[in-house]
Each structure stands twice: as structure tokens, then as C-alpha cells.
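Give me C-alpha cells for this 60-residue protein.
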Amino acid sequence: MYESDITKFIRELKTAKPHLEDEQRKGRAIWWDKKPLELKERDEFDDAQVPQKPYPYATK
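Here you go.
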């Protein structure tokens, strides 16, 4: 059965570093898995936004 070079690489990497998936899960928890903001916090966040020009690179 055919196995691509990428699949072989990933399989070898997981064999060489069995803790890799746990580190990926920890990184995801830090950067992506966040609890939703409370309504008060969301309102404060929305109020703090600075309006942006339609085209920020315009010189005039």
C-alpha cells in the first residue's frame, strides 16, 4: 500500500517524540481554547475599538 513521504515523516516524528501531541494540545489551550467574554467585558472591548479609515494606506 502506498504511503506518502509526508505520512512517513509524521509517523516517524510521532515515534521519535511521543510527547509531541500533548505539547500541541497545551499550545492550543493557551492560544485558541478560551472561554467566551462576559457581556460587560464585551461591551468594554467594543467601546475601546478605534474607528478605522476605509483605506488605511491613503495619504490624503
